[in-house]
Sequence to fold (648 residues):
Amino acid sequence: MGTALVYHEDMTATRLLWDDPECEIERPERLTAALDRLRQRGLEQRCLLLSAREASEEELGLVHRETQVLGKEELQALSGQFDAICFHPSTFHCARLAAGAGLQLVDAVLTGAVQNGLALVRPPGHHSQRAAANGFCVFNNVAIAAAHAKQKHGLHRILVVDWDVHHGQGIQYLFEDDPSILYFSWHRYEHGRFWPFLRESDADAVGRGQGLGFTVNLPWNQVGMGNADYVAAFLHLLLPLAFEFDPELVLVSAGFDSAIGDPEGQMQATPECFAHLTQLLQVLAGGRVCAMLEGGYHLESLAESVCMTVQTLLGDPAPPLSGSMVPCQSALESIQSARAAQAPHWKSLQLQEERPPPLLPGGPVCKGAASAPSSLLDQPCLCPAPSVRTAVALTAPDITLVLPPDVIQQEGSALREETEAWARPHESLAREEALAALGKLLYLLDGMLDGQVNSGIAATPASAAAATLDVAIRRGLSHGAQRLLCVALGQLDRPPDLAHDGRSLWLNIRGKEAAALSMFHVSTPLPAMTGGFLSCILGLVLPLAYSFQPDLVLVALGPGHGLQGRHAALLAAMLRGLAGGRVLALLEEDSTPQLAGILARVLNGEAPPSLGASSVASPEDVRALMYLRGQLEPQWKMLQVGAFTPQK
Ligand code: Q9C
Ligand code: ZN
Fold:
């Protein structure tokens, strides 16, 4: 459905007219560097370009008290009245364009002209308050867009995700008693010793009045937070609340001063991390995500991170995350304290907070941020994108299957002798239909392993599902996959002679018992209700997967898998964050064309349908999750929620 890029060259006009070391980092080059890189990567060309317009007085009035135009002489004097503000004669025009750009983006998304988009704007907005400019921000672009989405489009639930490294206190103040706007912000805090030095940036500021629980602060008390810390914050704090909230629209205060190399943030997250954050948000609100630039002062890091965000909005799979995926102790403590502060207001946190896990010292410690931007930044991932994003290899190409034009129905099959050789050990693969299906699957898998195809769907007769999966795993491991994650739903057993060499992680979702037979062989019941399903995905499947860092994912819906279509779509959409989106879904031949169709679209980058208001996880589901977490947490560190180590 498309991605909008909203911009206007005039927004490069505002600049610093006198010496001020605090303001000098907010430079016009921030916009030109980001835009140049988007062009260079061919990403701008794939977007719907919208030329920013000025917001009207009335639109600004949604959030701000009267605004004024000033003469040049008054600008410096006026600047002195605010914290971290330097006005320029063009500031008012630029700030009106920045606010207008956000409004256009929201209008484009909510009228269905596009699915999502990014507004590349200056000045930023999230520090701006009702009657005060602050922290380089003049008008609160995101807040105005949120108020507009409520007023002009009648929305009732808007999620604002502020991944800028500073606390967007302006947004918090404007909506702290408003339950229709869930505001999440993580920020460098250092126990209150970092700008803007506010007590109300801490985790225990949770909103007031009707808005209790609709302000979510995650203060980082150390610098050096990295990919694992950011993803853990999403999986264990933001996303459970966001799914429970069930937003109709997601606005992102997209500051990239939280990325590696930034002089303000001093954090370590690589640009690829923003692809993952974006992708994780795209499963909400039917994929209606509007990102607006806030901070980001390291031009290289900013440009790369903007590209990662836009690329993901366009539906490209996120590149794999680099580095060991182990959240640091300080991050876990922050996540735990935010969860504890929010637990009274959110059902999805309550059951698990009943017995707060003990905090034990001794986890990994953040390295700090002294090191220069790592080589990760100097060498952006240059792996060529596969020519086919998604291929569907069904045995009888289905004419009733409605697919986007860029999803291909694969005709090819592996060579007959080769297919027979792989099939030989399995009785269930002797039948002609099973052999034919296996030939198509092998052909598809080879395309994926060779890098020609990114993701795919194959089908098999139910009686041959287990054997086909067994062959797929072996073939994957012998033809290039280093680490293979297999998520198996329904009656599928781990192939008995699959080596226990740590190269495959088997996760079965079915039956009654939760069991970790080894760290690479996990079984958990399929929750009946949406709430339980979500905590299974966010609390178990994704933490395991992000810890394991597979380079190939197989997801198999086997006999009696019992998964609803929208749940299958969500699982596939979220597993797409692993292995650079190299995901092969294996279905039963008699699955409905609807199921095959929705999985193909989701693997191809479309948003899964909203789950709607979710039920709570049942006590049994929570017990299963807690049990497995206790078993597996020492090995798979992304499972940690708070600094928790189970007692023996
Ligand atoms: N060294 C935005 O990122 N100066 N504003 C802090 C600490 C103010 C940041 C000084 C930073 C404002 C949108
Ligand atoms: Zn910032």
User: Anything to note?
Assistant: Residues 91-110 form the longest helix (20 residues). Residues 353-382, 644-648 have pLDDT under 50 and may be disordered.
